[in-house]
Amino acid sequence: MSVILHGARVLLRPWTLSDTDFVLTLTSDPLIPLISAVPAAPDPDAARAFITAQNKRHTEGRGWAWAVVDDGRPIGYVGALWTAQNAGRASIGYWTGGQARHAGLTTDAVTTAAAWLLTDGGIARLEAYVEPWNTASARVAEKAGFHREGLMKSFAPIGGHRKDAYLYARIS
Which pLDDT value is given to residue 35? Predict the structure, then answer.
């Protein structure tokens, strides 16, 4: 079952192969391939594989992934992965392509996804992990109703080095 969500300003829809060109533009972004599964090289096959993998999340019961669409064109991503399904806990991730940043669209996407995940998605606790230097992402989480709970030291490898991350959570 495909889930399509309507935010105040954006549409969240499943990824489609028509999004391949958008994914290819992201390969030159200095941040997105570093922190996500977006391929780091402009390879159309890798871009299509990324899209296919996003849609498998839901069909395989691992979570959800949406293309964030503004004015009919994809501008970003928001998705959630189960971290402890039997406990109702999942993590949310999000990013926005360069031209659409700092316009409030990511906040709308995260707010919309979180509201659905915490009601119809069956999630009781939704977590976001934000690198301390990424103040824009922290602002998105806070504006979307997440509260910072603490700093997790050496949380995840990013760019070949283990990095800290703030833990944000939203429970309703």
Answer: 82
Give the sheet arrangement for strand 89-96, strand by strand: 5-6, 11-13, 63-70, 73-84, 89-96, 125-130, 161-170, 147-158
User: Which pair of structure tokens corresponds to residue 28?
Assistant: 């030159």
Partner residues linked to 19 by β-bridges: none
**Those residues with Cβ within 8 angstroms of residue 29's Cβ, 6 or more apart along the chain or in another chain:** 38, 97, 98
pLDDT band at 1 (very low <50, low <70, confident <90, very high): low
Write down all domains in the chain, each with its CATH number in brackets. Answer: 5-170 (3.40.630.30)
What tokens appear for 44 in the block?
Answer: 């159309």
Tokens representing 29?
Answer: 């972004």
Is the separation of the CB atoms in 54 and 38 below 8 Å?
no
Q: What is the pTM of this model?
A: 0.93
DSSP state of 115: H
Query: How many contiguous H segments (helices) and E segments (strands) does the chain have?
Result: 5, 8
